[in-house]
Amino acid sequence: MGYVDKIAWIRLEDGRVLSTRSRGRDVWYLPGGKREPGETDLATLCREIAEELSVVVLPESAVHVGTFTAQAHGHSAGTMVRMTCYSAEYRGTLRAANEIAEVGWLGYADRHRVSPVDQLIFDHLRASAGLR
C-alpha cells in the first residue's frame, strides 16, 4: 500500500474553511500539496501556499491541527493520502495561481464536494473548530 504525503493549510473564517479547485477538476481540496525531498512540513506549507494562493504564510504562527489518512482521490484503490494540517496566519491577498482555477470558502454543507481525506478534516473541524 502506497502513501501520498501531503501538507495542507487550514484557514477558518466566519465558520467556513478556505478551499481550492484545480483546473479540470470538479472536487475541492484544502490548499497545500506534496512535500519535496528534504522539505520540512512548514517549508512545504509555505512553498505550496505561495505557489497556489500568492500569499506568504507566517511560519512562526503555524499550529498543527491534525494528521488525517484516507483513500487518495483519483488514485488506485489502496493508495492512501496522509494529510498533515496546519493553521497559520498569512500576509497578502488570496488569489488563485498556477494550477488553481478557483478559491472559495466552504461550509460543512459542502462536505460532499471535497476529497475523501478532506471529508474527514471537515468532520474534525465541525466538531472542534466551529466549521458551520
Characterize the structure shown.
With 132 residues, the chain is an alpha+beta fold. The protein has a single domain (3-128), classed as Nucleoside Triphosphate Pyrophosphohydrolase. The protein is built from two helices and nine strands, in the order ββββαβββββα. Strands 4-1-7-6 form a four-stranded mixed beta sheet, with helices on both faces. The chain is globular and about 40 Å long. The chain starts with a strand and ends with a helix.
Instruction: Give the name of the CATH architecture.
Output: Alpha-Beta Complex
Strand content: 35-45%
Query: What is the helix content?
Result: 10-25%
Main CATH class: Alpha Beta
Low-confidence stretches: none
What name goes with the CATH superfamily? Answer: Nucleoside Triphosphate Pyrophosphohydrolase
Number of helices: 2
Largest beta-sheet details: 4 strands, mixed
CATH topology term: Nucleoside Triphosphate Pyrophosphohydrolase
Strand order of the largest sheet: 4-1-7-6
SS content category: alpha+beta
Describe the secondary-structure layout.
Elements: E1 3-10, E2 12-13, E3 16-22, E4 32-34, H1 41-53, E5 56-57, E6 63-71, E7 80-87, E8 90-91, E9 100-106, H2 116-128
Parallel strand pairs: 1-7
Antiparallel strand pairs: 1-4, 2-3, 3-9, 5-8, 6-7
